[in-house]
Amino acid sequence: MPLKRPHQHRDVSKHLTANPVFSREPISVPRFKLPHDGIDPDVAYQIIHDELMLDGNARLNLATFVSTWAEPQAQALMAECAEKNMIDKDEYPQTAEVEARCVHMLADLWSAPDPDRAVGCSTTGSSEAAMLAGLALKRRWQHRRRAEGKPADRPNMVMGINVQVCWEKFADYFEVEPRYVPMEGDRYCLSAEAAVELCDENTIGVVAVLGSTFDGAYEPVAEIAAALDALQERTGIDVPVHVDGASGGMIAPFLDPELPWDFRLPRVASINTSGHKYGLVMPGVGWALWRDAEALPDDLVFHVNYLGGDMPTFALNFSRPGAQVIAQYYNFLRLGFDGYRTVQQTCRDVATRLSAEVAKLGPFTLLTDGSELPVFAFRVSDDIDNFTVFDVSAALRERGWLVPAYTFPEHRTDLAALRVVIRNGFGHDLADLFLEDLRRVLPRLKAQAAPHRNAENAGAFAHGAETKESVRKVGKPAVPAARQAES
What we know:
CATH topology of the largest domain: Aspartate Aminotransferase, domain 2
Catalytic activity: L-glutamate + H(+) = 4-aminobutanoate + CO2
Order of helices and strands: EHEHHHEHEHEHEHEHEEEEHEEHEEHH
Structural class: alpha/beta
Enzyme class: lyase
Number of domains: 3
Strand content: 15-25%
Cofactor: pyridoxal 5'-phosphate
CATH superfamily of the largest domain: Type I PLP-dependent aspartate aminotransferase-like (Major domain)
Largest sheet: 7 strands, mixed
Helix content: 25-40%
Keywords: Decarboxylase, Lyase, Pyridoxal phosphate
Family: Belongs to the group II decarboxylase family.
Strand order of the largest sheet: 3-9-8-7-6-4-5
CATH architecture of the largest domain: 3-Layer(aba) Sandwich
C-alpha cells in the first residue's frame, strides 16, 4: 500500500498565505507544488518558521534517545563543515583523518585487541551501522560455507523480539531469516539459553542489545557469548556475536567498566553505536567497528585513492555532511573520559531519582529504574482500571511532554508501558517540573470512570519500541541442527 502523506488524510488549503506584517504585502504561495516565482528570503523564512512552531519541543521529548542539545562551539564547527562531503576523502583529507581518529578512540574504549589497527567507519546512524555489521556477518558465513563445500543460501540471525526495527529491515532487505526470541514472563529481552536454542549451522550471528529500546535494560552479552562457546564445544557450530550498542555502547564504558560486553569477549565480532545518542552529537552519525580485519571481509570494502595512498570505505550511503563526525571529535576532545563519565552519571542519577519518585506516586509500577541505560519504563499498576498508559501520555502532552506509550510484543501483549529517556541537558530541575506535571494530571485521571485511550486509538507513538511483524517471529526450524548434533 502506498504511503500517505499527512495532507492526504484531510482537506487542507492548497496555498500558504503570509502575514502582511512579515511580507510587506499579502501573498499566497502553493503548498504542494513549486511556486512559479520566488519570494523574499525573509518571507520564505517566516512562512516556514511559523509552521514549525507546531512541532514539539525537542528538549521536552522524553521519547527520543537522540541528542537535543549541544554546546555552541560544537554547533559552530558543524556549521563550518556542513558543506563538506564525508565521502570525498581525497578532497577533505583532514575530515577523513578526524573520522579515523574517532574510530581508534572507540576501539580503545571498547577494548579492541589492537586499537591502532582497528577496523571501523562512521555512518549516518546506528541503523546503517547495524546493516553494515549484518552484511559482514552474512558474508563471513557465506565464505566459510562455500569453502566447506556447503550451501550458503539459507542464512538466519538470532535476536530478541525487542531489537530495534532496523534489524527487521536488515533481515528483509538482505534476505536473512530473522529468528526472534519472544518475551516470557518478566524476561523482556534475549537470554543466553533462548538464543542458543535457535542457533544452527546456518546462523550468521546473534545480536545482543546493550540497552533495549523497550525498557533500557542491558542484555547479558557475556552469558550469551559463554553459551555460544559451549555450543561450539558440543557441536562445532561457531556463531559470532554482534553487540548493538546504539545507546549502551556510550554508557557502559564510563559507568560500568567492569561489565564484560565488548571486544574483551573473543566471540564479539562487531559493535555499533549511535554518536547522536549518548555519544552526545546532534542527529546524523553512527559508528560500526569490527574486532579486526578478519571480521570484515575485504570484498565488502571499496578502496579509494587517499593522498596517494589507499583509503578503504564501507557504507550504504554515499554523500553526507562531515559536520556530525567533526562534532563527535569535538566532544571526545572537549570532554575526555572523565567528562563523558560525569555527563552519563548525571543522566543516570536523574533517571534513578525520577523513577523512584514516579514509583512513590502510587498508581505506577516500575519495569526498570534507569540503573543501566538512563532510561526507565513503568506501567499502570494492576489495581488501576479506569485509565491507561495511553491516557497518561496524552495528558502529559498537554503540557508539552512527549512520553511514548506502547504495548509489548507477542507473548506479553498484555503489558503496556510508558518510557522516559534521560539525555544530556535534562537535569534535576526539568525532572522536578515533569514530576510536578505528572502529579497534576493524576487527580483528573483517577476521576475518570473508564479509560479514554488504548493502543488502537493512541496513535503510532511507540518511538523505537515497535512490535515486529508476527509472521517473522521466532522462525525456529523443526529440529535445530544444534540439537541434531547433541542427540
